[in-house]
Structures are given as structure tokens and as C-alpha cells.
Description:
Number of strands: 4
Shape: globular
Amino acid sequence: LVNISFISSQPTLPETLLKQARTSAAATNTDTKIIIAGGQNSFNNYLSSIEFYDPLARTWAESTDVLSIP
Length: 70
């Protein structure tokens, strides 16, 4: 579950949800994007996908790159 409550001084919520619901994912940010990578789905399968949230556009996008899962 990604809870993005404050991106700037104003509360904001994504207009759309992540493409893949996940838990235990890694998250970081750049100056313009929030990056969510990996994690597990509801069946405890490891996910290799990476998604980006753009708070200005309020949209999610899926990366064409994937994580390597051993």
C-alpha cells in the first residue's frame, strides 16, 4: 500500500492506482518522481516491476526495466 499524503504543501492523492498492488516494496524519490520497485503481491510472489508516480501529472507509469529476482 502506497500512501502519498503530502507531496508538497498541499495534500494530494494519485488519480490512478499502481498497476500492481504490492507490499514490502522499495520506494524512493527524485526531484520530480516517486519510484516504487519490487515487493510482493497478495500471493507472496516477488514482483520485478518498477513504477513511477508523477505528482504534477498525478499519474502512474510502469517502467520497461525490471528487477532481477534470484
